[in-house]
Design goal:
The chain has helices spanning 3-8, 10-23, 36-47, 89-96, 110-113, 121-134, 168-185, 193-203, 208-222, 227-242, 262-274, 277-281, 300-311, 320-324, 333-348, 357-360, 367-370, 374-388, 425-438, 448-454, 460-476, 484-492, 497-500, 502-515, and strands at residues 28-32, 57-61, 65-71, 75-82, 101-107, 138-145, 158-162, 188-189, 224-225, 247-250, 289-294, 315-318, 351-354, 393-398, 416-420. It is α/β, with parallel strands linked by helices. It folds into 4 domains: 3-162, Rossmann fold (3-Layer(aba) Sandwich), CATH 3.40.50; 168-243, Orthogonal Bundle (Helicase, Ruva Protein, domain 3); 250-420, P-loop containing nucleotide triphosphate hydrolases (Rossmann fold, 3-Layer(aba) Sandwich), CATH 3.40.50; 425-498, Helicase, Ruva Protein, domain 3 (Orthogonal Bundle), CATH 1.10.8.60. It is elongated.
């Protein structure tokens, strides 16, 4: 089986792995997923395979207790058989411990094992004893839920699996099913192959349930499936992903809105080419990621949005702070949140943006003292994923990387690392042009040389601020178009951050010279430093 085929059938891949573990008599298996319905349907298929013919299937939840839902001899039961007195989390374990065969799916059990982040000693002990018992039987306990904790006390007894999001082939099957339903209902079908491919792409990164919901909304909104449906789906997809709490869909920025950065543009085009079918056919390794190191206000986040345009890939911003949460939480929940976010990013095969990368990984050393190692485990998972990742372009930015360890930004995780200094004269002129054009002002009508001269040590953000203030000043002063004098007045009223933070900035430049290849002499002399190379440097 090819890698493509394996990736395309996530549910089949998952069932093969689960089947092997059940047959190998793994007693306790935790399945991390939001897709409980999808797992239930898959288990109904699994228990009717010949090698599991003697194993009835049970579902448990606190409101319903334990219910037998399928029996290989009787098939799927129309009316599940309720097992009395099993609604209590401990009582159901007592019943399971007496069984010789069966597959028991316990839904949302994790909060009882680890309430408020503290392990329940009684349940932990009970689970360990049950694990010992079940190893000599044909019974298996499956836990399902989105956040199963990493329990150090049970790490030898409980193995964890992840049900991946639907891949291309599964989504294509779902689309075909929807099309058949629409045809039978007499609704409009207007899908070329290109439109169908675009529709499939728009659904990547969603759960099976979410796919069903957004397609239904698109059908209702557009009276069928047609090219207009794609925009409806994309908007709803943004809402769904935003609702995950840790990911945000970010709109791309046209490349024309980026002043300077010629070297970075070339790098982005090069990175995009490594993901092309032609590159894959030549066994070219895709670009792992880009770490953009620079001073505050130099346009790092703008570069990230422009990267989305140049590479034609969706940009998802990762909010590491929301992943870690505030005030603690259930042990293992942060690790599960990062897994969920990275799974979405991997399925979409877009760009994963990580702002202030140095802050995201800064808590690794102190984690054991502050949160029992939760932060360290989460960061470690992220770094390991970055090492193994082949489908996602990671675009990380950092303001101050002096505390970063070389292990965290080495070549295996980032293909390129760049230092972005303050814009030089040429760049400042281009940045002024960009912001004047955005406000429908002709750059030729302004004394750009004068503006460039007076804006030495300005960041891109400060240049934009000066243009904004100048336009506002002109509007207040008689509702007129801005002129050079208005922008110049705004420039002269701004004290660049670089001048207020000169020592810190020089330390960052020093770090760049010591850690990034190519940092040398600056072309635009500044009172802050006589050192600078090109604006962007390659590792």
């Amino acid at each position: 089986m090819t890698a493509t085929e394996t990736d395309a059938k996530s549910i089949e891949k998952f069932l093969r792995e689960l089947d092997v573990r059940i047959r190998a008599r793994y007693p306790l298996i935790a399945i991390n997923t939001y897709e409980e319905d999808r797992l239930r349907d898959a288990l109904l298929d699994l228990v009717f395979q010949e090698r599991h013919k003697e194993k009835p299937l049970y579902f448990w939840s606190r409101p319903t207790g334990l219910q037998k839902v399928a029996d290989p001899k009787e098939g799927v039961l129309q009316h599940p058989q309720v097992v009395a007195d099993t609604d209590d989390p401990e009582a159901v374990l007592g019943y399971i411990g007496e069984q010789k065969t069966g597959i028991f799916l316990l839904c949302d059990y994790a909060p009882y094992i680890s309430p408020y982040g503290q392990e329940d000693a009684m349940l932990v002990r009970r689970l360990r004893e049950i694990a010992w018992k079940l190893k000599s039987t044909k019974a298996t306990v499956l836990f399902v839920g989105p956040n199963f904790p990493d329990l150090k006390t049970l790490e030898k007894e409980i193995t964890q699996l992840e049900l991946e999001l639907p891949k291309d082939v599964e989504i294509e099957d779902s689309i075909e099913l929807q099309l058949e339903n629409l045809k039978s209902s007499g609704l409009e079908i207007d899908l070329t192959k290109e439109t169908k491919d675009a529709l499939l792409q728009s659904l990547l990164g969603l759960t099976a349930g979410e796919i069903s919901n957004v397609i239904a909304k698109a059908v209702i909104s557009c009276n069928g499936l047609n090219p207009d449906s794609i925009n409806v789906i994309l908007e709803e997809k943004k809402n769904v992903i935003r609702g995950s709490g840790s990911l945000t869909y970010v709109h791309p920025e046209p490349a024309r809105n980026l002043g300077g950065y010629k070297s970075l543009r070339a790098i982005l085009e090069r990175a995009a080419y490594t993901f092309s079918p032609r590159a894959k056919a030549r066994h070219v390794e895709p670009c792992k990621g880009i770490l953009l190191v620079g001073l505050p206000g130099c346009g790092k986040d703008l570069c990230k949005r422009v990267a989305s345009s140049i590479t034609n890939r969706a940009l998802l911003d990762l909010d590491f702070g929301s992943i870690m949460g505030e005030g603690g939480g259930v042990i293992g929940s942060s690790a599960m949140s990062i897994k969920r976010a990275l799974s979405i990013a991997g399925t979409i095969k877009g760009i994963l943006g990580i702002s202030e990368f140095e802050k995201a990984v800064s808590g690794m050393k102190s984690s054991n003292k502050t949160d029992g190692g939760e932060t360290a485990r989460t960061i470690s998972y992220l770094l390991n994923w970055m090492q193994d990742n082949r489908d996602v372009l990671v675009f990380a930015t950092a303001n101050d990387v002096r505390e970063l360890e070389s292990e965290q930004f080495r070549i295996g995780r980032f293909s390129y690392i760049h230092f972005v200094d303050l814009p030089d004269e040429t760049d400042r002129q281009e940045i002024f042009r960009v912001h004047l054009n955005k406000r429908e002002l002709s750059p030729e009508a302004f004394d750009l040389d004068k503006l460039v001269e007076k804006s030495k040590d300005f960041s891109g953000a400060e240049i934009e601020g000066a243009v904004k203030d100048g336009v506002l000043e002109a509007f207040i002063d008689g509702d007129r178009q801005a002129e050079t004098r208005d922008i110049l007045k705004a420039v002269e009223s701004i004290t660049p951050t670089a001048q207020m933070m000169s020592e810190k900035i020089e330390e960052i430049r020093k770090w760049a010279r010591n850690n990034i290849k190519g940092v040398g002499m600056r072309s635009d002399a500044s009172p802050l430093s006589g050192q600078k190379a090109d604006r962007v440097y390659e590792l």
